[in-house]
Amino acid sequence: RLALMALVLIVSCSDVPTNEPNIIAPTDTLTVSPAIPAYLPVPTQEQIEWQNGEFYILVCFGINTFTGNEWGDGTEDPALFNPANFDANQWVRVAKMGGCKGLIVIAKHHDGFALWRTNTTKYSLEHSPWKDGKGDVIYDAAQACNKGGLKFGVYMSLWDQHEASFNTAQYDEVFVAQISELLTNYGSVFEMWFDAANGSGIPTNYDIYRYYRVMREIQPKVLRASCGPDIRWVGNEDGTAPETLWSAVSSTHWYPAECDVSIRPGWFWRKEEDSKVKTAEKLVDLYFSSVGKNSVLLLGVPPNRDGLIAESDAKSLESFRKRLDNIFAVNLAADCVAKAGNIRLSQVGWSAQRVVDGNTETYWTSDDSVKSSWLEIDLHRVVQLNTIDLREAIRYGQRVEAYRIEAFINNAWVIIDRGTTIGNRKLDRISTVRTNKVRLIIESSKANPVISEFGLYADPYRI
Predict the structure, then answer these.
(1) Over residues 19-27, mean pLDDT
(2) What's the mean pLDDT in 93-122?
């Protein structure tokens, strides 16, 4: 296993607590039209915006960058930390070039070394030679994100190998003070990512619900991730979500998944891995296996000892975005004629045409009693296609349980794809087919389906 995620989850942070309704249950869920009852639970506006962002970068930087370790042990000399050409603006430029919508920056890893100016520990940048002890990685990153139009988030390890009070009640005070500093002094934080890894194997006791309350009190809109109640870890470090993925994990809790993976074999920079950066093709595969399976892609990208993202990583990210843009350059279904087996109350506002209008805020839906139906798109010409893009209007809940796609080939309808859940976005790669009509058949749904997009594409790299 790599460094970032838990080998042993001592605290069951990934479980959904059911006895903390004021913490877990969204208190600011969206108001939905009474004409279309929501299928509960539904996401908050922050969760919707987070998922629509699709792709974020985890900036893996710290004392490990200078030791070559994946996990430090808290004894590393702060004097090692001295990135001569540090430039958080370069991180943002590279991230935007790759189409990233936000950075999550490591503030403290398992070694306990703090990358911000803190009153909670002496094991921090204050005792490094960088900027004569006056540097602040988190401040610079937050400012760069604000300037560059990216969202800003922070990562915190619960495990702290340097802090003498760790695993005592006093540590709760230290940790609360640390998250308070990070949420108070650096502007808006869209996601705070808790890592519950603990390589010691010693059972630990964190006042986790207190952490959640403090976060919500300071920044009501911050999303509490991984070891948190707003976003869950998908369960692996491969960047892949399962084929069937529900964001609605209970009748009261909307809990979308995030897929994390590093662009390199390890999470932190090593010179010898400059030649082992994932290719643009591999990054596209990861996009389809995360974003394309109702999740979000969190890609670890490590700055080097100069404090810059290496050229190899930057080139791969740039090529990834160009490749992805080429795949989705032309929606073959855009503005084509669409029809449905049923339209809710037979009203134009929910017509089948809404799924090909390019607007994810509009949608087709059926009558309440109709849980299986179909959508058909007449392309008016024979086209080649090999990529299918489906989206539910998740503000009304996640509904679809099973579907299939058929294409009209040689005067007959032929099944070309099958799937289970859709959620925010489902991307299916299929063998290239030639057809002039395609239809989506909802085989099973927990409630009447609400589909916002039905897109068809020809991936030029697979034709």
Answers:
(1) 33
(2) 98
Whole-number Å distance between alpha carbons of 224 and 212 = 7
- CA 408 centroid distance within chain: 36
DSSP, res 309: B
Taking only the tens place, the pLDDT of each residue in 164-223 is 999 999 999 999 999 999 999 999 999 999 999 999 888 899 999 999 999 999 999 999
Spatial contact of 191 and 232, defined as CB atoms under 8 Å apart? no
What SS3 string covers 70-87?
Answer: CCCCCCCCHHHCCCCCCC
**Amino acid, res. 314:** A
Name the CA radius of gyration of the chain, rounded: 23
Whether cis (ω within 30° of 0) applies to the bond prior to 21 is no
Q: Which residue has the tokens 């394309």?
A: 292
Beta-bridge partners for 193: 155, 225
The pLDDT of residue 22 is 30
Q: How far apart are CA 285 and CA 310, in angstroms?
A: 22
8 Å CB contact between 260 and 298: yes
- How far does CA 333 lie from the centroid of its chain? 27
Placement of tokens 């996401």 in the chain: 43
Q: Is 413 exposed, middle or buried (0-12, 13-18, 19+ CB in 10 A)?
A: middle
Tokens (6 digits) for 368: 């309440």
- In angstroms, the CA 138 to CA 304 distance is 16
Q: Does residue 405 or residue 25 have the better pLDDT?
A: 405
**Structure tokens that stand for 453 in this block:** 């997009």
Q: How far apart are CA 198 and CA 272, in angstroms?
A: 27
Strands 426-445 and 400-409: antiparallel
Closest residue by Cα to residue 108 from 75, 61, 57? 61
Closest CA to 153 of 109, 113, 187, 119: 187
The pTM assigned to this predicted structure is 0.93
- Return the sign of the alpha-carbon dihedral for residues 201, 241, 152, 3: positive
Write the DSSP assignment of 190-258 as a string of letters: SEEEEE---TT-------HHHHHHHHHHH-TT-EEEESSSSEEE-S-SSS---SS--SB-SSS-B--EE
Tokens of 43: 């996401």
